[in-house]
Amino acid sequence: MLSLIVLGLLLPAAASAAPTVQLFPVPTGGAGITRIVAGPDSNVWFTERKADRIGRITPAGAITEYIVPNDSVEDSGPDELAAGPGGRLWFTNEVGRQVVWFDPANPQAMHLIRDAALGEPSASRLAPSASGGAWMTTFGDDNVHRLDGNGGGIVQTYPSQYSAGMGDLATAPDGAVWLSDSGDYLRRIPESGTPLSVPLAPMDVTYDVSSIAFDPSGAVWFGAYSPGSMFSSARGGTIGRFAGGRLDLFPLGGDYLPKSLVHGPDGAIWFGEKDGIGRITADGRVQHASLAPYHGDGVAFGADGRLWFYDQAANMIGAVAIDANLFPAGPGGPGGPGGPGATPQAPVVKVTVPKQRLATIRRKKALSVSCRLAAAGKCAATATISAKDARKLKLRVSKKARTFTLGKASKSFRKAGTATLKLKLSAKVRSALGRARKLKVTVTATSTAPGTTARTTKVTRTLRR
Q1: How many domains does the chain have?
Q2: Which terms are listed as keywords in the entry (predicted)?
Q3: 67 lies in which domain range?
């Protein structure tokens, strides 16, 4: 069945720079689309939670739906969806109770790998494993498990290290799985070896990681925003990158709600947004394209080079052409990928903490840090310690706090250069430092400049008495 609506082609000449979008209504009404991925067969696949179906759409827009048996309650059909090694597509069913895989060449033959009994934890998020099975986080026990791909059950389990439980997860090119743990940490778990935890401070403490992706250099990218609650709306948005032991944060400057990150054929990271799609380059340039009145609830690059997306409320699958019409025009003309429509990023910032002892810091009443900007702008630095360490030093910390601020300082740069910032410490902080033999301190530096979005980096050092 082929049904399409074309946007951006039938508009008046004055609006010719609108994105070129094709929309394809899903045949089953109110299907409840929840995930979309590129399949190994050059088609795009998606889940229909409310319709108990898996959907396939060809580059030409032909949609086929495959019924998935469901003995559970309404709105509990296929949900999570991931493409794995060996051409398998994996999905969860019946509110995560079942984990299933199939070969796109024969989608009617579905292989049930896990069918959790009553009382056993159900899968929350899903990612394929390098060994042919799947990783899953679970409701109820806040663990991450690795499943055998041949029905042998759970073969690895790692508990959450933090109180708020597991979030999104994705498999890296090296075979390790990355996930968010409590929203405050990224964790890397290999199939053999030692897990690694990466703190996400100074990211907004209300933010949760919504999606994780990777680029060919090995960098880990993630999107995050505040999901809201029954009393408040979702808000905010930032894109983060972890590479070479360094964390960079790129605040989006609005309620973009980034989700479903994917690495694009152009080398950039693309993502779905509240009202469209976004793109960020390796050097932090951000672009946004509106698809209004439609939403980019999830995205995937198809074999045809277009960015495919779904809008759950509209019950639509869409395909966006990656061309010069995609992004708004800038001063020099159309803002194609990497073009003048990109929102410039603030100057590159680097922060270091010179070797210094806690006794010296107390005597000078300030922590010295070095900030380097690649161009004119402003550098603001903040030194923090963990809330746990602050309590050990008898500093007053709120129950919900995850960090404690030692001091802050900022400096304006007329041109590129390096300057020493003195982060002044209060009398209470100086007194507390006298009780410490050693202390792990994180310094976060943010660069800003007019007409740009902020750029953030950080460094952690252990200071000794």
Answers
A1: 2
A2: Hydrolase, Signal
A3: 5-320
Kindly state the percentage of the chain with pLDDT values over 90.
Answer: 57
Using alpha carbons, select from 244, 329, 339, 318 the residue that is nearest to residue 276: 318
Q: CA dihedral in degrees (67, 61, 292, 78; nearest 10)? A: 20
Any domain includes 423:
yes
Pairing of strands 110-115, 98-102: antiparallel
Would you say residue 23 lies in a domain? yes
DSSP notation for 28-68: STT--EEEEEE-TTSSEEEEETTTTEEEEE-TT-BEEEEE-
- Amino acid residing at 437: R
Q: Residue holding tokens 């070129």?
A: 20
Is residue 177 domain-resident? yes
Q: Which helix (H) or strand (E) holds 334?
A: none
Is there a single domain that holds both residue 261 and residue 381? no
Per-residue pLDDT tens for 289-347? Answer: 999 899 999 999 999 999 999 999 999 999 999 988 887 554 333 345 554 455 667 88
26 and 129: one domain?
Answer: yes
Domain boundary among 320, 340, 360: 320
How many CB atoms are closer than 10 A to CB 193? Answer: 9
Q: Is the pTM of this model over 0.85?
A: no
CATH classification at residue 64: 2.130.10.10
Residue 293: count other Cβ atoms within 10 Å of its Cβ: 9
What pLDDT does residue 160 have? Answer: 74
Q: What are phi and psi of 388, to 5 degrees?
A: -60, -45
What SS3 state is found at 13? helix
Which residues are CB-neighbours of 198 under 8 A, at least 6 positions away?
185, 186, 187, 188, 242, 247
In which band, very low, low, confident or very high, does the pLDDT at 238 lie, cut at 50, 70 and 90?
A: very high
